[in-house]
Amino acid sequence: MRYTISGKHIDVGDALSTHVETELGETITKYSQRPTDAAVTFSRDAHQFLCDAIVHLSTGLTVQARGAATEVYAAFEACREKMDKQLRRYKRRLKDHHKDRSEPVEFGQAGMYVLAADEEEWESHDSGLQPIIIAEMEARVPTLSVGDAVMQMELAGTPLLVFRNEKHGGVNVVHRREDGNVGWIDPRGNG
After folding, report:
1. Burial readout 111-122 (b: 16 or more C-beta within 10 A, e: otherwise)
2. How is residue 38 annotated by DSSP?
3. Pick from 63, 98, 133: which residue ends a domain?
4. What angle do CA 177, 155, 110 make, to 5 degrees?
5. Among 79, 127, 184, 190, which is least packed, fewest CB within 10 Å?
6. What pLDDT is attached to residue 62?
7. What is the pLDDT of residues 33-64, one digit of tens each?
């Protein structure tokens, strides 16, 4: 597995890098035999250290976690424990994921835009109430089953996931609702 271990305004020494590679490697291989790469970033927020880890699996799924503590090693351990909990929850499905799928998850490209938040700014331009685009980016949209989409959303720690439904090819959304349940939006309708 390839590791990218970096710090934002923090010097990440050899001892911390070795510790991260050893511990994260053990956690990932316990649940998934085929990780491809991991990116671990350390940063500081006031008196706390933050550790963000993203692990890409060869199936196309991504696992993401964040930890915070007053010490850098403790921040990594909090992050690793969260990732361990996520992976443990989906252990069986992650191990069987490659059996159900002969090819890795396919990704399509989509445009992603950041819009100005201030509606008064929209009105000041001659475009009426049209939003002002302040940034354009590319987003990757995976082709997944609904169950795999929910698993990917939870593994990545995101509040929602846009995906292409592998049954019918339409664009769908799964999201975490305020009541704790997962919502699924399928614009295709009931039929």
Report:
1. eeeeeeeeeeeb
2. E
3. 98
4. 80
5. 190
6. 85
7. 566 789 999 999 989 999 999 998 777 778 89
Say whether both 11 and 83 belong to one domain.
yes
CA 160 to mean position of chain CA atoms: 10
For residues 147 and 97, the answer to whether their CB atoms sit within 8 Å is no
Q: CA 38, CA 64: separation in Å to the nearest integer?
A: 10
* pLDDT tens digits, 139-176: 888 899 898 899 888 888 889 999 999 888 899 999 99
Residue count (the chain): 191
- How far apart CA 77 and CA 177 sit, in angstroms, is 29
Tell me how far apart the alpha carbons of residues 115 and 124 are, in angstroms, rounded to a whole number: 15
Report the predicted TM-score, pTM, of the whole model to 2 decimal places. Answer: 0.68
Number of domains in the chain: 2
Q: Which domain holds residue 68?
A: 2-98
Does 77 share its domain with 122?
Answer: no
